[in-house]
UniProtKB/TrEMBL annotation:
It comes from the Eukaryota. Pfam families: WD40. Signal peptide: none annotated. It comes from Polypedilum vanderplanki. Gene3D superfamilies: YVTN repeat-like/Quinoprotein amine dehydrogenase. PROSITE patterns: WD_REPEATS_2 (PS50082). The keyword Repeat applies. WD repeats lie at residues 183-216. Keywords: Repeat, WD repeat. This is WD repeat-containing protein 89.
Length: 392
């Protein structure tokens, strides 16, 4: 089934939200593929949000960012196995703004915070290798996002607005130094930076100013490096590179744009209302896009409704012509903030405001669930046993 929309269709009014629900009775006749929870791990007993997640290229490891802390997990045949390192490992004084594995080494990761630092860690010994930062001025440039290029040689980081200026900073990973920065191409905070998956010098950045800028960072000057700008006429939030130099952008208003970077054309635009219709849901104000992913030569996005603790989660394929229903996810209990996709094994990982890391597989799966409630019960049992063993 193919769902096509008029790109000029205006979003529904969000002033009068409605109770969300499916617009059709037999939803599985449209979303014929169902995913169930294979494993769920609770990262914290406290009310904390998982805001960032990253996976190694071979999907053997997952790192999450939860407030001011990162947690590392091995992906096993039965679920997840948490790394237990030093007490001070992966804990920061400021909130995390990004996490990224190296492309060619599953043991190296970088983590950024809004304090302007990008910390590089080696997971083999839980040691910090280096901290990248722009220390050329007294004022700290807060890092909002960053990425590592295909050769693991460069880091590009986007900053928040500082004294009416916004920066794209570039670091040389091997030489451990700041290479320089651009500060004229964006007027408001940079919300995402994404290197091309194979062209190591090509990088895209987006901002709340509505611009998506494409750079060739092998050029020394900003004027020479800026190849072209794409105007979303919205507040841009997330970028994703796809095959044949296609680039998707999720806006802060939950619209989805698809561009051909080579021709600089907007291939298609879907509004939040279009996305809601494609999900077969009623309430526009509740429906959001979590992230975009690649599935073979095709493109896909994961969307959710925040109604009733985010119980509705669905994935849909898209191209320059239409949106096609793909998967329905059964049993979600949290509002989602991040998603990962293992294309090789057709496995999803989601994280969110319930501090849960959930692994999804197709079909009905015997689930192993570690929820906050079960963790609290286990903690309570341990306390009772300890008290009972005390002879006094």
């Amino acid at each position: 089934m193919s769902l096509d929309f008029d790109v000029n269709l205006d979003s529904e009014s969000e002033d009068e939200p409605v109770e969300d629900g499916d617009t059709i009775k037999n939803i599985h006749e449209v979303f014929r593929k169902q995913f169930s929870i294979s494993y769920s791990e609770c990262a914290s007993l406290k009310k904390r949000y998982i805001t960032h997640a990253a996976n190694s290229v071979d999907f053997s490891k997952i790192v999450i960012g939860i407030d001011k802390e990162i947690q590392i997990y091995d992906v096993t045949s039965s679920g997840l196995s948490k790394y237990v390192g030093k007490n001070d490992f992966g804990r920061f004084d400021h909130p995390i703004s990004g996490i990224k594995f190296f492309n060619n080494d599953n043991n190296l990761i970088c983590c950024s915070t809004i304090s302007g630092e990008i910390h590089m860690y080696d997971l083999r010994n839980f040691k910090k290798v280096f901290t990248f930062e722009d220390d050329t001025e007294v004022v700290v440039k807060p890092v909002n996002c960053f990425d590592i290029n295909a050769s693991d040689r460069l880091i590009a980081a986007g900053t928040d607005e500082l004294n009416h200026e916004v920066y794209l900073l570039f670091f040389d990973i091997r030489e451990r130094r700041l290479m320089g920065g651009f500060f004229e191409s964006h007027q408001e905070e940079v919300t995402d930076v994404k290197f091309h998956p194979s062209k190591q010098d090509k990088v895209a950045s987006c901002s709340t100013d509505g611009l998506i800028n494409i750079f060739d960072c092998s050029k020394e000057s900003e004027d020479d490096a800026l190849l072209y700008s794409l105007n979303t006429e919205d507040s841009a939030s997330k970028l994703k590179w796809h095959n044949n130099d296609k680039l998707s952008c999720i806006t802060n208003t939950n619209d989805l744009h698809l561009y051909d970077v080579n021709t600089q054309d907007l291939m298609k635009k879907w509004t939040r209302s279009n996305i809601t219709d494609a999900m077969k849901r009623k309430s526009v104000i509740d429906c959001n896009i979590v992230d975009c992913h690649n599935i073979g030569d095709e493109m896909m996005f994961l969307a959710t409704s925040n109604y009733n603790k985010g119980e509705c989660v669905r994935s849909l394929k898209f191209n320059e012509k239409s949106i096609d229903p793909l998967c329905d996810f059964i049993g979600n209990t949290q509002i989602l903030r991040a998603s990962l996709y293992n294309e090789k094994d057709d496995v999803f990982v989601t994280c969110g405001e319930g501090a849960l890391i959930t692994i999804w597989k197709e079909g009905v799966v015997s689930s192993t669930v570690s929820t906050k409630e079960s963790m609290k019960e286990e903690s309570s049992v341990k306390k009772k046993l300890k008290k009972k063993a005390n002879p006094y």
